[in-house]
Amino acid sequence: MRSPEELTVAFRSAGLKVTPQRQLLFRLLHDNSSHPTADSLHSAATAVMPGISLRTVYQTLTDLAEMGELQSIEVGSGSLRFDPNVSDHHHAVCDGCGDVHDVYVSKAPVLRGLDDFSVSDAHIVYRGQCGACSALVATK
Amino acid sequence: MRSPEELTVAFRSAGLKVTPQRQLLFRLLHDNSSHPTADSLHSAATAVMPGISLRTVYQTLTDLAEMGELQSIEVGSGSLRFDPNVSDHHHAVCDGCGDVHDVYVSKAPVLRGLDDFSVSDAHIVYRGQCGACSALVATK
DNA sequence: TTGCTAATTAGCAATTGATGCAGATAAGGT
DNA sequence: ACCTTATCTGCATCAATTGCTAATTAGCAA
Fold first, then answer.
1. CATH number, domain containing residue A22
2. Which domain holds residue B61?
3. B33-55: per-residue pLDDT in tens?
4. How far is Cα B84 from Cα B129, in angstroms, rounded to an integer?
5. Which nucleotide is nearest to B53 (CA to C1')?
6. Which residues touch strand C (CB under 7 A)?
7. Which of B64, B82, B100 is the C-terminal boundary of a domain?
């Protein structure tokens, strides 16, 4: 996702308006690698701007996703997560704490057993234990 | 997932009862590669046994999943899908018709960029166009 | 600066997928 | 055949998300 300043220009030239709510969300998402949900982002936004609506958060996230500035991912936590990192990467989900990490794979896995399918995209979800959670288990 | 007969034995020896509803679901799921949702399975069941409750379908699916007889997968269609194929495989989702196909990958993709994470499982979701949908697009 | 117009916000209703609950029912061992 | 206990059904509930609308505001133009 681009910087708040670049997004401001991009939104205006797309006929969209740049409101204080959106500027705040731009800032909260920029360089955010926590893969937040709409709800967690709303909590963070509320701390800075009390009264901001969850509906507005959803709306802005949808707009950003449509512009290709962020991608939404599904890792089985029940709610969508948003990732401002739109480079080609995958995700590792810790079964202990639920945290999601970005991962990069050396090469696209070759598939077998499917003759008649043209693949346009592949997304891998790894599950396991993160370092912190492994340490916790070990001491128990 | 094992055959309806084997499941009957397995359920009884686990202290679970084998009802007509469950027997029907065993049959509907056996060798079913359509990756049904709870709802679509309920529709199929209703055709044979009018009045069967959606709640019962969910309950039985949960039981089967807990016994390791089927796995639930998330492919971004909004609802959980159930797969009686519990071998180590992945899925290809057609963006045209939404159908889900089983796929097998030659070797587990190696990951990079994550030092401190022990992977216990990896699941790949491929997206693209199935043969039928590619053909449709070509003729348009 | 002021005004105009269309986009946006907030709040609430509605929707969807899934689960919790309880009384009536039925499986299956004895 | 009986009795205990799991199961079934129907309904209420829940959580995540989207639809809807009146009031507000961004941003262009005069």
1. 1.10.10.10
2. 4-82
3. 999 999 999 999 999 999 999 99
4. 23
5. D9
6. A 11, 15-17, 19, 21-22, 51-53, 55-56, 59-60, 63; B 11-12, 17-20, 37-39, 54-55, 58, 62, 78-80
7. B82
